[in-house]
Amino acid sequence: MSPTIERPIALLLLPGHSALAAGALLDAFSRVNELQDEADYRPQPVSPAGGPVAASSGARFITEALDPQLPWHALFVLAGERAPASAALLALLRELGARSCVLAGVDGGSAVLAAAGLLDGERASVHWTLADTLMEAYPAVVWSGQVWEINAAASRLSCGGGTACLDLALAWLAGLHGDRLAQELTVALGLERARGRDERQRRPSSERMGAGSPKLAEALALMEANLAEPLPTEEVARLVGVSRRQLERLFKQHLDSLPSRYYLELRLSRARRLLQQSSQSILQIGLSCGFSSGPHFSNSYKASFGHTPRDERSQRAAAWRSLPSTEETPS
User: Fold this and answer.
1) Is residue 222 classed as helix, strand or coil in its secondary structure?
2) Is there a contact between 50 and 67 (Cβ–Cβ < 8 Å)?
3) Cβ proximity of 201 and 160 under 8 Å
4) Hey, what domains does the chain have and what are their CATH numbers?
5) Is the full-model pTM beyond 0.70?
6) Is the separation of the CB atoms in 63 and 46 below 8 Å?
């Protein structure tokens, strides 16, 4: 049997980071050791100077000073919207990157890696509220609206806020140890499933999604109000008061998508929720979400989610059947 490989993981906590993300990553890297014996993951909260670091919630984490001489396997930068990043810290991150340390940005941590020039030419994810600002500040980075991103060499990782760090960690660990371990870890962490690379960050409302662009917010509100009878892109543009080309530019700039594609995703997301939560028939759900027939709904659903509406409903039924009964046994 080959010896277990030690893999120190630095969780670089900067003021304003998410306490939820920090705790989730500590738990994930601790639990993965119980599921495999190839590597011994050792997560360690660190900061540039050591000592307590305040999260956005006010909670404080006790950290060690980041020692660049230690053989870090990976370093996760956790930061809030306005992460302080000194020239010395950026230089240290560049040094670690040159030494083949895997670098990951969580939430505003992606902005710190971008400031160090470590994401140039890469796709990167960041919390959607920061996307517009970072697109302007770091145009060499391809900012995406996805939940997480991992580059081809698996040396640069990034994700949005909240529990997106778990989706990122699970995907990264699956690449190192296989999908089965990632599935077992998903269950161990109490998650229903891990979100895939193709899933976009959820945004709270059309008004906030269209912040900074009233025309975009108006177009999104129109789409959300007309899911059962979808409006053609030309009609949305006409009602908003812009040309089709202008509307497409707005969607590409703010949502990295075309209006027609985004509209379809809205309808499919609503259909998925109904399949999981309602007792309506599959055909009723398809028609209520703007699909002209059962086959049209089924084909579109499978192209987006990888399985049919019938499979979705069957999986949900199987999950409910597997739950223990809550009925009391008569005495």
Assistant:
1) helix
2) no
3) yes
4) 5-188 (3.40.50.880), 206-318 (1.10.10.60)
5) no
6) yes
Phi, psi of 8 (to 5 degrees): -70, 130
Predicted confidence at residue 211, as pLDDT, reads: 52
Which amino acid is present at 244? R
What CA–CA distance (Å, rounded) separates 247 from 259? 7
Would you call 159 helix, strand, or coil by DSSP?
strand
Inter-residue contact 53 to 46 (CB < 8 Å):
no
Amino acid at 139: P
pLDDT one-digit tens code per residue, 136-149 = 889 999 988 889 99
Determine the angle formed by the axes of helices 233-240 and 259-277, rounding to 10 degrees. 110
| Distance from C-alpha of 169 to C-alpha of 121, rounded to nearest angstrom | 22
pLDDT tens digits along 40-88: 999 999 999 999 999 988 889 999 999 999 999 999 999 987 777 899 9
What does the block give as tokens for 89?
Answer: 């810290």
